[in-house]
UniProtKB/TrEMBL annotation:
Residues 158-202 form the RecX third three-helical domain. The keyword Cytoplasm applies. Belongs to the RecX family. The keyword Protein biosynthesis does not apply. Keywords: Cytoplasm. Residues 108-145 form the RecX second three-helical domain. Its main location: cytoplasm. This is Regulatory protein RecX. Pfam families: RecX_HTH1, RecX_HTH2, RecX_HTH3.
Amino acid sequence: MAKITKLEFQKRNKERVNVFLDDEYAFSISAELIYKEGIKLKDEVDFEKLKILAYKDQLMKCRETAIRIIEKSHKTEKQVREKLILKGYEEEAIEKAIDFLKQYNYLNDEYYTQLFVKEKLKSQGSNKIKYSLIQKGISKEIIEEELNNVNIENEKSIAINLAQRKIVTIKKSENDKYKISNKLYRFLLSKGYGYDIVNEVVKEVINEKSFN
């Protein structure tokens, strides 16, 4: 058994408390946990209680880290999980932190996908958006459900706008209609547009009077 002989807030982080056992520094712990567990001076603690406190503190630290990760910008479940792993948290703590974020709707892959698709459609095609979301760990079911709602005509309209701007640049160094078409074709494919849209857009832009 050891006796708690001193409790002091850390100078740089007032949310954590340094715990001294038998007049020697032992460990730091969340101030919230100190309050919840009713820890006070002159309490006697054994090894088992210390293990429990360390476990609970790990859970709270992991949860707080997860919250900080999503404060700056929306993240997918995979992105949060990977960042927590990199910070060295154990699997059980990570799972509980993820569950906490989901419970309060701080982490929602469906909502993330909606925002991502809406933003990226301004400059990218469905194929590139789909690949990006897969890389971020979004399930194919969620991706397909959201992309199925994309208005094809709107997507084509954006592709035309991109192509019209791109062709101006291409024509500065290329005069051959066939080569211009190929470069425009490759450009739109790189932007993630499907073959059907690319074919229609290239044909339309190439045949515009402004090109002739």
